[in-house]
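Moderator note: this is an archived Q&A kept for reference. The question asked for a predicted structure of one protein chain; the sequence and the answer are reproduced below.
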Amino acid sequence: MALSTLDLTIVASYAILLLGIALFVSREPAGHQKDTEDYFLAGKALPWWAIGASLIAANISAEQIIGQSGQGFVVGLAIAAYEWQAAIVLLIVAKFFLPIFLKRNIYTMPQFLETRFGTEVKSIMAVFWIALYTCVNLTAILYGGALAIEAVAGIAVFPAMAMLAAFALLYSLYGGLKAVALTDIIQVVILIFGGFVITAIALQLVGGDAGALAGLSTLMQEIPGHFEMILSTDNASYGNLPGIWTLLGGLWVLHFSYWGFNQYIIQRALGAESLQEAQKGLAFAAFLKLLIPLIVVIPGIAALYLAQQGTLDMASLSDKPDSTYGVLMTLVPTGLRGLVFAALIAAIVSSLASMINSISTIFTMDIYRDYIVRQQTEQHYVWIGRATAFISMAIALILAQPLLGSNESIFQMIQEYTGFVAPGIVAVFLLGFFWKRANAPGAFALLISSIALNLAAKMGLPDMPFVLRIWIVFLICLVVGVVVSLMTRKPDEAQPVDLAGIEFHTNRGFNISAVLITLILVGIYVAFW
């Protein structure tokens, strides 16, 4: 379905506004040129509201909106565990992990690993993260976004990906993290508002004259199985969301890997003007995470009901669940459709810009500056960062369709591939934080074990749910790291983290927010167990 002239005008206005603001906030005082701290960490001047909004804008992208709407159609509210559990993880990261990172004054996650375990561990993880971000995350964002654009605007997948890539590069290359984070304020407002428009329209179609709230009640009555957070073993989706193990097992490992040790996410907090601002920003993001299932999962459940009633094509949606959100967008009236389309683009380009900024930061600060060209000017490294961002986007554009074109669910594919390394990443950081005896050989051993054990379990126990597999591998990785560290020499005296010199105290506002968020989540799980 083509967009109307009014829709296109709204989308174009959004794009012009975004570019204008990006250029405005990227300006530097007369006589000042961007250095690496300006470009990669926004001059360490980000306030809490920018950090929180930017975290969510970076996180909510094609695989979230497109993938979780599709999973809402297939499995229902249980997929929201990926969002609601993340709120708790954000609070833990803010209280216990951020003080350590900011105390060490780092730019990147590999830099922490270097200070804790040495250059070899740092280098291996830097290369790994660049490959993962480029070949998995960046390609997924591009391809998932293009699928939705194809469904709404009728633009073929590759041209749609090319336009998204160009737009993200256009507004982010010059300003770096500052341009990305501050424009994300607009992005997150648009995408949340646009998401609620889709939810309201879908529920209105379900409820008819009785309204949207009646539509939600109808869904809960007619398809109650789609409002269960803990799936039974006979559920067709148990392999992806294995009942109680989504609450007790490996899903937490994925969350901590993503929200705690992921350059793509944590870079915003590293650019905070203070530890307290960073912690408030993560608490704000945790509140926003509570809203996300309402705008991505509920529409997918509504789409299932509408398909059962013949309003939507059941065969088409069942064959390609990831097309659910795009199909729902075609139901939005002219004018509003342009706003919702702009919201989708906001989600995609924000994540693209955030991802390429993280790739460029890791490559420039951990590889190029350390191993290729040393002792260059700050401006030289900024330009290398820009070139890296451009090249990584071009590589992802080439790889996206061949790698992802045959996958039924982009969202589940990302979780599966990330799960091969997440246990090792979480284990190496936790041991590095809280056990002084952990050393480089132990770090190497557990990182290798994470991949080897996951591959062995996937081949030898193909029916084991991957969430359970990740949890078991994580526990084994911890044991491997401890045993190998004890069997080899102690780390250098300056390497272990001195927890005695780090302030883990949080203020009253943060503590109240943490309690409130926890109580809300307990209520949700009790209501929809």
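Archived answer notes: Residues 111 and 122 are 6 Å apart (CA to CA).
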